[in-house]
Amino acid sequence: MEYSIVQVVLVFLVTFIAAIDQFNFLESLYQPIVMGLVIGLILGDVRTGLVVGGTYQLMTIGNMPIGGAQPPNAVVGGIMACVLAISLKLDANIAVATAIPFSLLGQYGVTLIFTLMSPLMGKADQYAAEANPKGIERINYFAMALLGLVFGAVVTLFFIGGATMGQAVVDAIPTWLSDGLSAAGGMMRFVGFAILLKFMMNRDMWGFYFLGFGLALVVSTNEVLATPALLILALIGFGIAYWDFQQQTELKGAAQEFDGGEEDGI
Amino acid sequence: MASKDQKTTYENLEPAADLDQKTLNKMAWRSCFLQASFNYERMQAAGWLYSILPGLEKIHTDKDDLSTSMEHNLEFFNIHPFLVTFAMGIILSMEQKKVDIPTIRAVRVSLMGPLGGIGDALFWMTLVPITAGICSNMAIQGNAFGPILFLLIFNVVQFVLRFALMNWSYKMGSSAIDSLMGVMKPFTRAASIMGVFIVGCLTVTMGGTQIKAVIPNGTTQAYVAHTATVPNDSVKSFDVIKSNDEGVTLSGMKDSDGNYLTTTDAEGEEVSAGVTDLGNGMSEVTYMEYTETPVTIDIAKILDSICPKLIPLTIVMLLYFLFAKKNFTPMKAILLVLVLGILGAGPFGLWPSIWG
Predict the structure, then answer these.
(1) Whose CB has fewer CB within 10 Å in chain B, the N or C terminal residue?
(2) Low-confidence ranges of chain A (pLDDT < 50)
(3) What does the H/E/C string look like for B199-223?
(4) Dihedral (C-alpha) A11, A16, A20, A21: value to the nearest 10 degrees?
(5) Is the ipTM reported for this complex over the cut 0.85?
(6) Are residues B186 and A57, on separate chains, in Cβ contact within 8 Å?
């Protein structure tokens, strides 16, 4: 099936916006149910678009970015499923299954971008030191544009290249590289934790760090508490902090009273 | 940068004027782009700064103060994207009152914990599954109103929350801080305790790094029990099926002294060799076979038996040490982590990946 240049450009633009929208803006435009309608409109088969979008959406309901986890990418997967279904006249369920390698590729792409974006924070630090709000704005706009461009380019290539190309690209990435990058990506956050600790930590605070660590281990063994785990932990942390606050202020108050008493004596 | 890091108070300690509604609305809009420059090192830090910048620019008219404020607001930050305005309101009211920086930082870190679970439960586990479920069925039936209804419900909830939380938490923060001003020092200490506590929790809940290496450790030899049903008259032949030169039974029911062999099965239960007469001329025999099984050392299992999440804890400790004692820059730390990740994965297939 041949597509006009206008359709190719429109698919690129829609992917560009959806890629940004998956983490920003309305954070709902990118959902496959919406993309199905839009891609259906562009390729001139709204009905198939709706059916595939709805089918893909039902599949992703259990696959949400809960707790910051990175599920197979719904943007690339959802759009490709619609493109495949309409251009190859595939059944909705088959199209959704065929799109899975593409969604994995999208997931790798997100991991790669989130990893490579880390060094950009050095530049942001520099803008902050210069008190340059425009610089901070530029960094954010640049990062969004990059995400949109990478996704737009990848999906447009597959749109032109077809289904076989997706699998070929997935196979061409060596496992050690994707494993290594995703392991490094998973460890990057520890850099952020360590910087926070450096700023907050006093010699007498270590106990509270280990207290939090230990309690979180205990709470996280209980599956029922998986979602509210951090809320429960924050309540415990609040209790400890509040108790310390009361101790400190009462001691201070008592000390002042004592001082006052001495003055009265003199 | 080093000198700024040590700064704990702003130069101009005069509380700034209240932020006007227009600025608050502008920031609520900007909060939609919280994750614009999301990355694994500081997560939403730059997007967070971007969101509160209009307020910070109004509050800190002194350029040095603005830069100090921007710098500490660029530290690691991660919160639920739909509930971020709650944290924004509180932090902005603290900035406005020119509260000292360690206190603002400690409160900001403390806010990271509790909102995540609430937001996930509200959006990803309730709102999206229900609305998307209903609307998907409409779409599958070819109804184009399905996607539109989904967008409508989701975004009405999202934006009402964003704007309401922004205004409410800003006003609440302002009044709460007024009453706290007198006891700022113990409050900072308490907030830091909670901040450090939360980072300890995050090390567990967000620390997924695990080493999965399995080291072969020779083989072990033990009897493994088998059962078979055989005619009664051939039971005798199962006593010793095979033995080695020293007379040790390799396969059979009895050892060289004629006693029944015993072993322990996978569940740790003792199993004894023997014969059960089934009564129909057949017998069920349980016999032993000497079997070699490879033994491996599972590093993850050993580490978890010492203390789960030991790897995340170790890396955080190591990086803290490098930052605090060796003056590491974030950039150096990132490179170290990147090299560590790729080396661990066995570049060019030189060795098997250790990451679990």
Answers:
(1) N
(2) 257-266
(3) HHHHHHHCCCCCECCEEEEEEEEEE
(4) -20
(5) no
(6) no
Q: Do B201 and A25 touch (CB under 8 A)?
A: no
A21/A77 same-domain check: yes
pTM as predicted: 0.75
pLDDT over 50 at B2, yes or no:
no
Same domain, A138 and A258: no
- Which of residues A187, A221, A236 is at a domain's end? A187
Asked if A31 and B150 come within 8 Å (Cβ–Cβ), the reply is: yes
Is residue A192 one of the residues assigned to a domain?
no
B34 three-class SS:
coil
For A45, which residue in chain B has the nearest alpha carbon?
B142
B56, B132, B198: residue with CB nearest A234? B198
Q: Mutate which of A25, A28, A242 to disrupt the B interface (most B C-beta within 10 Å)?
A: A28
Tell me the count of A-B CB pairs closer than 8 A.
421
pLDDT in tens, B48-68: 999 999 999 999 999 999 999
User: Residue B222: beta bridge partners?
Assistant: B291
Taking the Cβ of residue A139 and every Cβ of chain B, the question of whether any pair is shorter than 8 Å is answered with: yes
| In chain B, where the domains are located | 2-205, 214-298, 309-349
Residue A265 identity:
G
Residues A59 and A168 grouped into a single domain: yes
